[in-house]
Amino acid sequence: MQENFVIHPDYSQMATKLRHVLNNFSKKGEYVTKGERNVIKTVVVEGNSLNIKKFKTPNVFQSQVYQYLRKSKAKRSYEYALKLIGFGIKTPFPVAYFERFSGGLKESFYVSEQVNYDFDFRELIHNPQFKKRKEILNQFTQFTFKLHENGVNFLDHSPGNTLIMDNGNDNYEFYLIDLNRMRFEKMTFEKRMHNFRRLWLSKTMVKIMAAEYAKLYGKTYSETHQLMLKHSRAFQKKINSKKLRRRKR
Description:
Blueprint: E1 2-7, H1 15-23, E2 30-34, E3 39-45, E4 48-54, H2 60-68, H3 73-86, E5 94-101, E6 105-113, E7 119-120, H4 122-126, H5 133-149, E8 152-154, E9 162-166, E10 172-176, E11 182-184, H6 189-194, H7 203-217, H8 221-248
Antiparallel strand pairs: 1-5, 2-3, 3-4, 4-6, 5-6, 7-9, 8-11, 9-10
Helix pairs in contact: 5-7, 7-8
């Protein structure tokens, strides 16, 4: 059995205790989510509140790929978090990642600081009367623009993957989570608008965000709105069609 444990230098003093927690993951901490694919727990180690994400064990073929050809989701999450922070983009601070191999990748964990956020982007979708909704959407658009300007194509830019903190005085902070699917590349206007598609935006939300993005990018409102709406509607139609096909089975 081969193991790979990498911990950020800022947390090196608790390496032994954290490794013990990871080796006894099933017995430690409290569940945040317990899905079919991934499990997330919260633990306290030396007074630090941490989130540990255990990724689903890959199949035989994928486990070989992750050992020899491609970085694991845990390693990518850790490295991408460091990159984002380097760009001045917020994400829960990356503490460590842990991989266990035996004829391929068997287990992988990503550890980050726990962020005490106020709400996530989903609230803005489900509640059109959400307090300061327009202002939050404008600031979220500025946040997304910053991602794009730094060449970050966040492939999972979806409602549950942005945590929002209300700092008062109409000031909001945005934290990206679920980081393992990203590309770092030049973001054309087409790619930028395509990147909004998973956010499940209403027509009103598209109008607000397109106006703000057009102002930031120097495009007209009309062309920004048209392309953002096109990609948003195409994605929603695709997902709804899949749901309909499942119901008919």
